[in-house]
Amino acid sequence: MTPKRLALLLLLLAAAALAATARPAAARPLFNLEPRLEPVASEIAGRPLTVTCYRHGEPNDPWQWGAWAYVGLYDSTVNLSQEVCDGALAIMEQDVTTPLIEQALGALALTHESFHLRLALPFARRASEAQTECRAVKRVRETMLELGATSGLADALMPWALAVHFKEMSLSAAYDWPGCQVPYFSDFWR
Prior knowledge:
The termini are far apart. This protein is globular. By secondary structure, it is of the alpha+beta class. A four-stranded mixed sheet has the order 1-2-4-3. The chain has seven helices and four strands, in the order αβαβββααααα.
């Protein structure tokens, strides 16, 4: 056998071995389960929840619909976009390279979606974006602390969480609950 044919044979054998061990795209998971966020989400919902994190372009990625996160009101799964998941995990990992607004968004969206799944609330209240957002903005600091934020970090993140909250309200009246007493502003006009 000539050296060229031997090299070609070895190349073909290596390619075949590589192809046999590669996982086809259909066999790869379409999202990542994130068990580190599950205890916090479950605490808010008052029942066990699963948290999934999507990357952009994956099927069911919340970002495809212009959302940061979503749930099915009778499911037990919180679905988070890449930004939300990265933000919440940055708090847990004490990652100072992640922007504060992304961390605040992660905590607020995780809180909001987990409240949608709190079965102890009447269905109409769980389904209401406005009531759920009001509950979330009132609890988000506690969520930050449960994710591992120091009190100082939670204080630094709160203005960003409030900015996200008010931005949501300005973009959609569905998130605006007129009677909501937002933290830090409830006594502002008194």
